[in-house]
TrEMBL record:
InterPro entries: Alba-like_dom_sf, Aph-1, DNA/RNA-bd_Alba-like. One of its GO terms (cellular component) is membrane. This is DNA/RNA-binding protein Alba-like domain-containing protein. The keyword Transmembrane helix applies. PANTHER family: GAMMA-SECRETASE SUBUNIT APH-1. It is found in: Membrane. Gene3D superfamilies: Alba-like domain. Residues 359-387 are annotated as: Disordered. The keyword Membrane applies.
Length: 387
């Protein structure tokens, strides 16, 4: 078929997915490793499915038998998705604890979705490798390949279009599925599983003459459905509380019980960290939400008060309200109560001006820094992303 045609089909199958991977995943080393690990896991699951079905090959013939195989395969993969989600949930807790220990921040809504997207990309890469890249060596010959059931479309073009559809479907549906599982919304979970099954069953149309002419566009249409499911899901999820909920997981073993909705810009103050370590996070929340809530338990109350006074003294915020309560905490010794303080601060009208002035002063200080000091400062930086 020639190198040009092979490259063209390869760009159709993997081009959009590769561009999305480079844009959202490839810039962060951890997401790259996570997507590769996820890809390996899903490849193993696909090979296990193939091994389980190998003994039934003599009896697999006709649409009904293939439909049973597809239902079984999709069910196994959806079960694997639930298992991957529990690993993902555990990983979120560990990463959130590390982030809080490093700079007092917590994983935000976008961070959690980036991790879910990495899992989805891994699933998509595994599917493309298993169902498309295995055809590429056959495409290097002099001609192309047509099947008797579909003489109007090249097998390689059909495989490329299907690979594109399933790549997009798996990558996007993983985000919606993880959110649905996290917030225990069975309707969204069933929607994603049903969409996966429906996309797989569409391949049965190929039993009809020239059925591939209908299957390919229907699969490409199906890849847009996770967007609608995601929009419905996002519209009903408490997105703004994600930072607070993730931060609460590392507070105690059992965690406090919350009777009401959490503040969208809530910071849990730890008594083991200095108040100044929360200043940058407070500035970010003030800039994004216009408010920040400082929440502290027990001995951490003094740190919360000190942080509030620092922000007020700099002219960045003024006090909107203070709430005190007794919080029930559960640990190995049983249930006990701790005093709880919540301070809500609102940014001042001069907030943007003060932040701009501080930025300018920091830039001027950096410009006048001596070479030795600059080398020492650069030596203390942590590498967050790959260049």
């Amino acid at each position: 078929m020639g190198l040009t045609a092979v490259a063209a089909y390869l760009l159709i199958a993997a081009g959009p997915g590769l561009a999305a991977w480079c844009l959202f995943i490839g810039t962060k080393s951890f997401l790259v490793l996570l997507s590769l690990a996820s890809s390996f896991l899903w490849l193993v699951s696909l090979m296990l499915i193939a091994l389980l079905l190998r003994g039934f090959l003599p009896w697999i013939s006709g649409p009904a038998a293939y439909a049973a195989v597809l239902v079984f395969s999709v069910s196994v993969q959806e079960g694997c998705r639930v298992g991957v989600f529990h690993l993902h949930k555990r990983m979120l807790t560990i990463l959130n604890n590390l982030a809080r220990q490093a700079d007092g921040a917590s994983l935000c809504f976008e961070d959690r979705h980036s991790l879910a997207l990495a899992h989805g990309m891994g699933h998509a890469i595994a599917h493309s490798t298993f169902f498309y890249l295995c055809w590429v060596p056959m495409a290097m010959g002099d001609g192309t390949l047509y099947l008797d059931a579909c003489p109007s479309m090249s097998l390689f073009l059909y495989a490329a279009l299907c690979s594109l559809a399933f790549f997009t479907l798996h990558a996007s549906s993983m985000i919606v599925a993880f959110d649905a599982l996290a917030y225990k919304r069975p309707r969204q979970c069933l929607t994603i599983s049903g969409l996966h099954l429906a996309a797989a069953l569409l391949s049965l149309i190929n039993f009809a003459h020239n059925g591939c002419l209908a299957t390919a566009p229907l699969l490409l249409y199906a890849l847009m459905l996770p967007r609608d499911s995601g929009a419905d899901l996002v519209g009903t999820l408490p997105q703004d509380t994600s930072v607070s909920q993730q931060a609460d997981e590392s507070l105690t073993e059992a965690g406090p019980s919350h009777s009401g909705p959490l503040h969208p810009a809530r910071i849990l103050i730890s008594g083991s960290r200095k108040p100044v370590s929360y200043i940058n996070l407070s500035k970010r929340f003030l800039a994004e939400h216009g408010e920040v809530q400082l929440s502290a338990l027990g001995t951490a109350i003094a740190s919360a008060v000190a942080l509030a006074e620092i922000l007020k003294a700099r002219g960045l915020a003024f006090e909107k309200g203070i709430t005190t309560a007794l919080e029930n905490l559960a640990d190995a010794k049983g249930t006990r109560q701790k005093p709880k303080l919540e301070i809500v601060l609102t940014k001042t009208p001069d907030f943007d001006t003060i932040i701009y002035r501080e930025t300018q002063e920091a830039d001027q200080s950096s410009a006048h820094m001596r070479p030795a000091d600059a080398s020492a400062a650069l030596g203390g930086l942590r590498l967050q992303d790959d260049p």
